[in-house]
Design a protein that fits this description.
This protein is mainly alpha-helical. It contains six helices and no strands. Helix 4 packs antiparallel against helix 6. The structure holds protoporphyrin IX containing FE (HEM).
């Protein structure tokens, strides 16, 4: 336990680093879906997008999400009094929405991989705004702590 308290600033620093990579991937993946939705299924362009989406999800988004989660939980274990604070309750509620979005993106990627995507480029343009919007509210909650 003392180790976690001593290492707290390092754990928080790596939590934020992991979050940055996770959010970068969450903003980039639906952008690929926008262009992929207009590419002919089975064509060279669509096959290239499949490789890019798979590598982005498995190589960056999933690992950084897991790191952000584990480091975030370690911060709570090291400082359990945080769990009494309203801003963290609200933050974690928005983080659950971020996980749901992550899950949706994983499903859309699988649909594209099987040439079974039925969503339009316009749909992906709209859903592309969701993660940045969540980030704005999460960061305000964790830095400003309005309640
Ligand atoms: C995945 C689940 C997450 C958990 C369990 C979690 C938990 C935490 C905890 C306990 C802290 C420490 C607060 C303190 O020391 O006072 C923290 C800090 C922080 N979190 Fe998260 N977090 C998660 C996801 C996120 C996400 C998705 C974002 C941004 C989009 C984020 C942004 C931040 C920032 C910027 C800080 C540093 C705040 C400061 O400097 O005091 N976290 N997080």
């Amino acid at each position: 336990m003392n180790f976690l308290v001593d290492a707290y600033p390092w754990i928080k620093a790596f939590h934020v680093i992991a979050v940055i990579f996770w959010m970068a991937g969450m903003a980039y993946l639906p952008r690929l879906f926008v262009y992929h939705a207009d590419a002919a299924a089975g064509g060279e362009l669509s096959e290239t997008f499949k490789v890019m989406e798979r590598r982005l999800l498995r190589g960056i988004i999933n690992p950084s999400m897991i790191a952000a989660l584990i480091l975030g939980i370690l911060l709570i274990v090291a400082n359990p009094a945080l769990m009494a604070q309203g801003w963290l309750h609200a933050k974690l509620t928005l983080v659950v929405l971020m996980f749901a979005l992550h899950g949706m993106f994983s499903k859309y990627r699988k649909d594209f991989e099987r040439d079974q995507n039925r969503k339009s480029a316009r749909f992906f343009r709209i859903i592309n705004e969701a993660s940045p919007l969540l980030v704005v509210f999460i960061v305000i909650l964790v830095i400003v702590r309005p309640f």
